[in-house]
Amino acid sequence: MLYGGERAWMCRIRPVLGQLALVLAVCLGPSWAAAAALFNAERATLPNGLEIVVIPNHRAPLVAHMVWYKVGSADERPGKTGIAHFLEHLMFKGTSTLAAGEFARVISRNGGQDNAFTSYDYTGFYQDIAADRLELVMRLEADRMANLKPAEAEVRSERDVILEERRSRVDNSPAALLHEEKSNALFLNHPYRMPVIGWAHEMQGLTREDALDFYRRYYMPNNAVLVVAGDVTMAEVRRLAEKYYGVIPAGSVPERSWTSEPPHQAAKRVSLTSPLVGNASLSRSYLAPSYQNGPSEHAYALQVLAEVLGSGPTSRLERALVRDGGAATRAGAGYAPDPIGPSTFDVYASPREGRTVEECEAAIDQVLARLLADGVEADEVERAKLRMQASYLYALDSTRGPARLFGEALVRGRTIADIEAWPERIAKVTREDVERAARAVIRLESSVTGVLLPKRTS
User: How many Å from the N-terminal Cα to the C-terminal Cα in the chain?
Assistant: First the structure.
């Protein structure tokens, strides 16, 4: 299974080839109004509250079927970290009619692929399969929405699986351990400070009843979004959804009542030295707004700022730290606007052999100070926006890509209109918007700097 605690699933599709950007500039000009309905998504809601989104794509007889639940690790009760991810695993461990593991075996026998993922904000399940197998998939997924029944032996076995997953992916990964320490330092009060996979000592105590209680509280049609992309129509999807999901009664969904962040007053620094580290690295995370948290008017400009600062060979950090034998072998920036809660704006670098983390940090600070003092150039902002808009079109090249894009947004309270309007909203970002966003976010007192160092053994 997958889990999204490192925000790997929160990031937008990365920028692509400049050639496509040139085509876009020629074909679409300064306005993106013509691109406002590229996905042609349709939405409906069943009487039991299940939201349905269909994204037609008839280029191949395939579908991506995804069910997104509006619950993630941020909704866990104190002392029960990891229960959202644990339940994700147990969803494959049997229902009233299916034996443990049978779900995945049926999908595989029918030529499909399936998996699941957990993040702070949501839990999702997907199947990629031939379009004529859609009814089968819906029947299976609706069954485990309503009838999960894992045996006690399966629960104990799967608890060992998630503990081993934590050991292999976190405890034996210095970068992942440092990320946990940074999150705990950055988020003073918000549940994003807890790891999605959970703390090992709490994971060890998770029980079957813990999992089923979480399941009964959150896994219901009126707390879910069904997204189907591919060779389908809304009429077909709705008919099948009414047949299989529509018979599941709605439930009482707990209100999300997350703690919020107080003002931050001091910069923080964490470091980790380990013999498992091959190359040193530096990363800094600034607390940042998202689409729905904090001063959200900066969310689109921060995406452009990340592109200008740290995406690709022409970015400011790449030119200052990597080119022409600079202090680093890699450098960049990133920002995800999507979380329901606060987000982060990140910069990072890895020193070149013979150079130090301190040199990289000084170079990053110099780039940021110059940006804050002198601002950005209008032409670099325009180039960044074209690259970003080109990446939006590339989302059309797969079946699951659009399904993921829509599912992540809708389960977090965004709308189809928000998704379709993204290119146009990016196009409207000005140089002044980017500069205002930079001044609002790049503040040391609301940052955590993490340093990862190799431990030399004699």
Answer: 38
3-state secondary structure of 350: strand
Q: Alpha-carbon torsion 115, 119, 123, 126, what sign?
A: negative
| 333 within 8 A of 391, measured Cβ to Cβ | no
Structure-token pair, residue 396: 């059309």
Compute mean pLDDT per 10 residues along the chain, 458 residues long, and list them.
43 34 41 59 97 96 98 97 98 97 97 98 98 98 98 97 98 97 97 98 98 98 98 98 98 94 96 95 98 97 98 93 95 97 98 96 98 97 94 80 95 95 96 98 98 83
DSSP bridge partners of 226 = 52, 67
Distance of CA 262 to the CA centre of its chain: 24
Q: Which two tokens stand for residue 402?
A: 């659009």
**What Cα–Cα distance (Å) separates residue 233 from each residue in 53, 126, 238, 429?**
10, 18, 9, 35
Break the chain down into helix, strand, coil percent, rounded to 5: 45, 20, 35
DSSP state of 9: T
CA gap 2, 200 in Å, rounded: 17
Q: pTM of the predicted model, to two decimals? A: 0.92
CB of 256 within 8 A of CB of 190?
Answer: no
Q: What is the distance between the alpha carbons of residues 299 and 10, in angstroms, rounded to a whole number? A: 14
pLDDT at 3: 54
Q: Cβ distance 86 to 158 under 8 Å?
A: yes
pLDDT at 1: 59
Give SS3 for 77: coil
Type and span of the H or E element at 56: strand 51-56
pLDDT at 38: 80
Task: Let me know: does 383 contact 313? Beta carbons within 8 Å.
Answer: no
Give the DSSP per-residue string, 122-144. Answer: -EEEEEEEEGGGHHHHHHHHHHH
The residues near 29 (Cβ < 8 Å, ≥ 6 apart) are none
Catalytic residues: 88
Q: What pLDDT does 391 receive?
A: 82
- Number of Cβ atoms within 10 Å of the Cβ of 266: 8
> Are the CB atoms for 213 and 96 separated by under 8 Å?
no
Q: How far apart are CA 363 and CA 360, in angstroms?
A: 5
Pairing outcome for strands 62-69 and 447-454: unpaired
Q: Nearest 5°: CA angle at 200, between 198 and 203?
A: 65
2-3 vs 224-230, strand pairing mode: unpaired
